[in-house]
Amino acid sequence: MPTALRILLVEDERLIALLLSETLKDMGHSVCAIASTEADAVAQALAHLPDFMIVDAGLSDGDGVAAVEAILKTRLVPYLFVTGNAQKVRALRPDAVVLEKPFFELDLVAAIERALAVSVAT
Fold this sequence. Notes:
5 helices, 48% helix
């Protein structure tokens, strides 16, 4: 299990955001902000300087992949995509760690560890 992380959660479905936030807290992490749009994700990343980001690729207002690309232009932040359409994300960012919805907590733990390992390697 990685050390406690300050996580920016980008998810436009409120119930999923709340459930995921609670799961992350139970895992020992803290959620520094929850963003529901592409623009809000970029603003929250700049305001809170998270250690890690969990990003829904498909947002109702904007795009999670585009949000990550904008954030990475300002600073390097490890990230994990969660999505119902992993193929779309892999087509846009082939080297990204992607966790397909629905998933179990153990899958989330493993995906966070993979995403952190990838960020160290690059």
